[in-house]
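Consider a concrete sample entry:
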Amino acid sequence: MAALPLRAVDVAPGPAGIEAARSALVARMDGDGAPFALIPQPSRHVTEDYARMVRACVRPDEPVEDDDTALVAATSGSTGAPRGVLVTRANLRSAVEAAWEHIPGLQACSWVLALPVTSIGGFGAIVRATLAGTALHALPSVGGAAAFRVEDLLSLDVTEPFAISIVPTQLADILESPAATEWLSRATTVLVGAAATPEALATRARESGISLVTTYGMTETTGGCVYDGVPLPGVRIDLVDDGRIDIIGPQVAAGYRGLPRETAESFAGTAPARRFRTADHGEWRDGRLSIAGRVDDVVTVHGVNVALGAVESVVRSEFGVREAAVVAVPDVRQGHRLVAFVVMTDPAGVAAIAPLVVERLGGAARPEVVTVDTLPMLPSGKIDRLALRTLAQGA
């Protein structure tokens, strides 16, 4: 069989882009349509440079490497240029069916779309609604067509059981509004992912009656495949090399688009027991997977190894910190300089952040603390750490 060429689907912000993505999905899952890639068009959240990088990494019009490919999805590019991931039809079905098996009642839910459809998180909502034959409700902000506003949730006409996928920053915004919090508490399931959810934020949401499920996964695993620290049915987690996370199961993608060396380094085995080696460290706590940070997040400061994820966790725990991200930049004298960017709800807490880090992690972990109004975000909802490193170098 001749390899199928990849079709580029330009995704405009708003409802038109959603329909284009859904039409391509339906055609491919039915077996008649071509494999496709979703190319975001410039919007308030998507720069022209990012859209060009996505198009370059998915390589439209060239034959796909795996005949079962449904979608070539771009990774977020949070730590470098995005890569195209070969997501198969079997990957998509497995991801949806595993979530249905894990969460009672989820298959009957309609879905509220609050994330960009060009990210695996947003596209996942379209896949779930399409395979279940349920309704899809979209916020006006989807795809960067407008700013995310919690008021828009209240205007949605959703009377049936529903579920929604959001990112931690959206959850934090919703919890600031009693009306939006009450609306979210009516959801059968609220999946939150794309970035680590601070424990205090998750606790606050659950205490407000929200059926929150924290998710862990990536584009290479067709989105979240570990819910609240528990692998979904059919998924196995191996901790290798002192805690590095390997994910094995039918949701693991076929590889990277046009990158055979990188595919061989990160992927192994065959479906449905394909293995993906992540860049994350983890550990088991009371039978649940806890993410300790990225492999490449350990830097040297004055000859001492410091884990950026550990520093970020301490910073987030300080009262008054709403959002936080810690980055490291090279420094001739120290080896690396740590900078913590924080969004505060109570500015009085800023002075306590660095001493708290020193108390818990030692003097080498002391960060410079920079307050910002918002953290730069990628279209996927992840923090743009490359942008923060650029800011840190000039700080």
About this structure: The chain has two domains: 7-291, 302-394. The chain is about 30% helix and 30% strand. The first strand starts at residue 7 and ends at 11. The CA atoms of residues 114 and 139 lie 6 Å apart.
